[in-house]
Every structure is written in structure tokens, then in C-alpha cells.
Amino acid sequence: MLLLNLDTVAPAGAIDRLVARLDERPDAAVMGPRIVDGQGIAELSFGAALTPWREFRRKAIDRFDRHGLAVARRAIAQATSREANVDWVTGACLLARRADLEDGRPL
């Protein structure tokens, strides 16, 4: 099952690659792609389980990025440049196996 924001523009083949990657990872319940804004700049769209410290850090990076601080842009670029096992992905684009959803597997 694919959840995708209505205003999303997916490059040709992107959804097929996401499905293929999920098929390659039977241990993964959910996949999310790298999300970029209208200018092609990566956004933080995933992360570790939320704690007050992690949420504070994520919001600080977002705020610094909006204010143009290069260190924040580098942190986001580094985090989004590789595949990672994470605890959550944004609902802007989220792919989950139907069987896992129907079986009630914790996502």
C-alpha cells in the first residue's frame, strides 16, 4: 500500500524502485524514499524513535536550515544520502506491505 501526498511529483521509475527495494527487504515493514522540496533540496523525512532530545534536535536542524545555516544543510544532506534503518518515515510517501497491514504487524 502506497501513501503519497497529492502534491508529490515522483520521478519516472521512483515508485517501481521503492517497491523493488521493499521486496528485497522482507525484514522491513515500511519504506520511504528520499524526500526533496520543489528546489530539489532534501528534507528530514525519517528518524529514530522520538524522544524529547531527538525531537528538539530535529526541530533545531530544521530551523537552522530554514535560516540558511550551512551546517544544518550538510547534516541533512549527509543523513539523506544513504539508506538507513529507522523507526519512522513521513507519510508524504510511505510504502507498506498490504499483508503486514492486514496481519496487524506493528509498523
Give a verbal description of the structure.
With 107 residues, this protein is α+β, with helices and mostly antiparallel strands. It has two domains: 1-35 and 90-107, no CATH class; 36-84, no CATH class. The chain has helices spanning 14-24, 52-66, 70-79, 98-103; strands spanning 2-4, 30-31, 46-47, 88-89, 93-96. The strands form two sheets. It has a three-stranded antiparallel beta sheet. A two-stranded antiparallel sheet has the order 3-4. Helix 2 crosses helix 3 (70-79). The longest helix is centred in the middle third of the chain and has 15 residues, at 52-66. The mean pLDDT is 90.
Strand order, biggest sheet?
Answer: 1-5-2
Helix content: 25-40%
Would you report the number of β strands? 5
Shape descriptor reads: globular
Task: Give a quick account of the main beta sheet: strands, pairing sense, barrel closure.
Answer: 3 strands, antiparallel
Question: What is the averaged pLDDT score?
Answer: 90
- Tally of alpha and pi helices: 4
Poorly predicted ranges: none
